[in-house]
Write a structure and sequence with these properties.
single chain; 5-stranded parallel sheet; 852 residues; disordered C terminus; 42 helices
Amino acid sequence: MHSPNGDLYHREREMGLFQGAVGELALGRPTVATIHGPHGIGKSALLNAVPRLLPPKTLVLRARCHPSESQFPYSMVSQLFDPVLGGAGGHGTPGPGLGEAGPTHEALLGLLRTTRSLAVDRPVAILVDDLTNADPHSLRWFSYIARRLDDLPVLMVATLPASAAAQVAEQLGPLPYLLRLWPEPLCPTCTTELVDRAFDSPVDQELAALCHTLAHGNPLVLHDLVTRLRRTHVPPGSPDPEQVLPIGAQALSETVLAWLGEDDPCASELLTQLAVLGPDTDPAVCAALSKHGEVHDQQARETLVRAGLLEAGAPGRFTHTAVRPAVLARVSAHERLLLHGRAAAVLARLGAPARQTADQLILAGCDWGIDVLRGAGIQASGVGDRESAARYLRRALTLLEQRGVPGADGDESAAKEAREREETFLDLTVRLGAVELHRDLDACARQAAAAADSPLGPVRRAEALARLASPALVSRVEGARPFVRVCGELAALPAPPREHLLRLTAQTLLTGHRSGLRRAARLAAADPGDPAAHVFAGALAAAAAAGGRLGTARRMALRVAAGPADAPEGTAPGSAAGPMGAALALTWTGDLDGAAALADRLISMSRASDDLATTLLAHLVRGEVRLRRYEHTDAHTDAEAALHLARRLNAPALAGAAAAAAARALVGLGRAAEAAVLLSDEPAAGDAHPFIKALTLQAHGTVAAALGDHTTAVRLFLDCGHRLALRGITHPGCVTWRAQAAASYRALGEESASVTILDGAPRQRGPVSPPQPALDPGSRPRPRPGRERTLLSPAEQRVAELVVRGSSSLEVAEKLFLSKRTVDTHLGRIYRKLGIHSRHELAGAIGEELPV
């Protein structure tokens, strides 16, 4: 605990030394004291405290030097002696013009005699502030007098900066009565007391600690900081750090940093470099930028450590977060750009890591460094920093675009340059797309579209898109279209690359298209154990299940599921189509245990490889399995996880699918109102895959039915079935919309529609009509209703019942999601089978009466 000495804190040792010097003065012995230290440490405050310690009747001579007066001879001496001698020329004081060419020995002797005459009757205290700013004549006088005080009661005290310590030691070091003082920075306790006194109330301990750290114990900086805090009305009891830090940065900028620029330009330059380039910048880079060499750089670092701006040791970090903003506030934007550009050039010349050089390239806005940026993107992606990787690769693409297309003048070198540019563009596009696949699926889809437009030919385009193939991209039409187009181009070639064709065909199968299917199937059959064939088989299993070929789908899915779990490509996004398609196929064919096991394995593998898109899809599949098992709580957990990942990946279509799954799970938990809010809050993707749109419609219908609005539910369920039919998904096990629509029909009292929407024949309403009597010869025989029902297929029976109930062909088409032409075809077959000619004869032919 340090008690204050008037306005002084933490100065007990210095004040004790001065009291000893005053005691020597009372005994008639001299003392020469020098106070060293940086700006603001309190040298002047200590000097001003000396008169309070002096005995009565002591003659005090004071002077304060300033650089503006250093050109006038004896200006400091005049400040000291004029008040007591009445101006120049008295009592041996140098007159005007005396010694202007230099302090002569006679002039110095005259000043010495004057000093001795003043010290005859009483002690004399000579106090000089900022001695180094004195004129050369006065400096020579101070040194001359100080060495000749052996028998005089004179106390000489002068303040000097720390940089003048060596010079003073050289001139006055041998003096036995020399006293050198180095005031220390304030301790945390003294800082807290000073801040409490300034605010006139106890302050928050964190605020006091922050003030101490920012000021580094410098009293003047601390005073300036506290003044600014009070001026901006910062509450001392509960300060806001976001309000304090800018104030601290401004205080540092106008005190410590300003002093540093005046006293040590090399250290100020190094501090600027570290602020702009980062505190971890290699010292060799800083030395190369400053051109002073590593020795000067190390000396500058030591200066910054002493100033409290830089931590000791390597790497030298800033002592506080406010230091860097304070330094940057003093650097113009133009200077920053120049420094970043110079740093990029130096780093490239020194062979620094690509990421370090690329950061400076981007900050400087340089128009060179495509290869450096590409290398930085590869490095960042390799360590999982995909945000930085995307930034590097986007900048490289921008630079490539700024170069423009080489002129098409028929020159061979120009053609070669143009092809190299296209190769570079495609490579950067695919690399950026691969990065975006893990952070922004919509951006990845745009990169895939750009790769599909490359003029380098179908094989090169297919090779590029195969690196971006992922089942997550088919959730939107924009993401699916490039794969379908390039797959068709590749399948049309005489000898397409096998692996690329299989992977792209697998991708298009998941979109509902069949581009290149036959050719890919033949290639896969030639080597079914190949990883690409494994991917193709999984996608084909899903397509087979969607089309109702359940046996084929299940066999293929089980073969894919039995593949090695530790396959080297098992976690690659492009390879996820195989197990993902197999999991869907097992779900749709009723093998829920197999589908759950495969989904669990997919989640584990994709998490290990940080493949968020595959993790998202696997959660959706596992959630669907749990819904079908009536495990609604677990299903909701999976859906919530998928929704979080979809939002993180900027995938609105998949977010809609996840929200739909979560809503269905909430309905199962009896929280239909919450499910309705969830669906209303999640905007629908306009170009989502038809299957996802169908899932969304099913979820809305499920919520409507749970809330009792069965009319709306039926409409939504029928719309769901219509969209599935458009994509060729005819298997009812894929989406259970028919069963849900039938339940809503029953709730509305439309039992016949409930039966029809499933797949059975209409129910009999009463006893079967008795046998009809024989007709006259030549008349058409009336077939028996029971027998004629067996002549019709289930589809024809559904059409016949709706027609009997009075529906037009167009209305039948809308209800069964068929075209009007298909309905008319069914009616023609029905008429032929039953031997009738019009719909008016249909009711009697199948044993039903037309409604009135």
